[in-house]
């Protein structure tokens, strides 16, 4: 899918500079973008990318309950390309895991393309993270901090779009000024982006629970672009998802934090008039997740984090189990025992919901803080790995980066596992 020439109005526009809004430009690749989107069944409900949390078994669980597409966690393009262990731990997939967006962060077009080419045969789209607002992204020069380097963003997208067979998507945050957001979106589309996911918050609005996402800005982007547009932010229930689609006119929605607490959030049959009512049975969902982990193993830290999120307020009531989860190894077998114990206790209590000990707002705030801390810890681990890699390279222990197309994936019982050739 070759990218059209860059819309002249946006090429030189630095952040905070002049952002003239071009007329709606011709987008030669729009037809192909729509054809790909339709071939995936025009997915409306998406599992958002989440570091250490939108891993294979969690994606599969959400897909069972209404998610029609999913993103991998953000993968560091250079680590993915050069560090075999990083790849094996962070990227697994399987046949049922489609349509799949593999998300990378990057600031070097050639490295990004080389990493994307390794993942390309095993996914449906390659996504570029332009939304990460954490300090680690500032240090690493990626994510939302590339909003200060639009010519580089343009090169990253154009390089991907002209070098891959699968469509390129981007996940962006908005600028404080709508005109800037629209010019940015036009630039991305003109550079070859086939899908644009818009998180309706600015780079400075890091605490998503304190700031409502701006659905008006998302709606304006949807109206301005010719390729499919996805909305992100403030989707906490299925009703929110439907409302967001109706209000913004977007082609799909992403959910992140709320999906962690309720992986069945997108399940239409839950409580729908005439549909089966399925009460949220948190231990049952966790047990289902653990079955998937048995087939597609992931590190215990991910199991622990999902157990905390899915069991949520039940753990505030059963403090002994919470402490056990906190202090134990959190291997799938012991988390299974814990979930079964909790299920028995819930059945004996005769209640469908835990006794609230915190206000809903306070609980959401605490959960969001914990999730963010986990994500930052993971990104810091990546920073360390990268530093180690650089040190080895400097000492001559590692040869130059493998050529584009090197490496591949092995089919194992755990799914497809990345390997270096
Ligand atoms: C634990 C966690 C990890 C995240 N990791 C990523 C990521 O890897 N890539 C990304 O683009 N966004 C990431 N995000 C942001 C979400 O994808 C999403 O844009 C944001 O949470 C807003 O959506 P929400 O209101 O549904 O939570 C992460 C969010 C959370 C809570």
Automatic annotation (TrEMBL):
Residues 47-267 form the DUS-like FMN-binding domain. The keyword Magnesium does not apply. It catalyses: 5,6-dihydrouridine(16) in tRNA + NADP(+) = uridine(16) in tRNA + NADPH + H(+); 5,6-dihydrouridine(17) in tRNA + NADP(+) = uridine(17) in tRNA + NADPH + H(+); 5,6-dihydrouridine(16) in tRNA + NAD(+) = uridine(16) in tRNA + NADH + H(+); 5,6-dihydrouridine(17) in tRNA + NAD(+) = uridine(17) in tRNA + NADH + H(+). Gene3D superfamilies: Aldolase class I (3.20.20.70). Its EC number is 1.3.1.88. InterPro entries: Aldolase_TIM, DUS-like_FMN-bd, tRNA_hU_synthase_CS. It comes from the Eukaryota. Pfam families: Dus. Keywords: Flavoprotein, FMN, NAD, NADP, Oxidoreductase, tRNA processing. It is an enzyme of class 1 (oxidoreductase). Its cofactor is FMN. One of its GO terms (molecular function) is tRNA dihydrouridine synthase activity. CDD domains: DUS_like_FMN (cd02801). Belongs to the Dus family. Dus1 subfamily. This is tRNA-dihydrouridine(16/17) synthase [NAD(P)(+)].
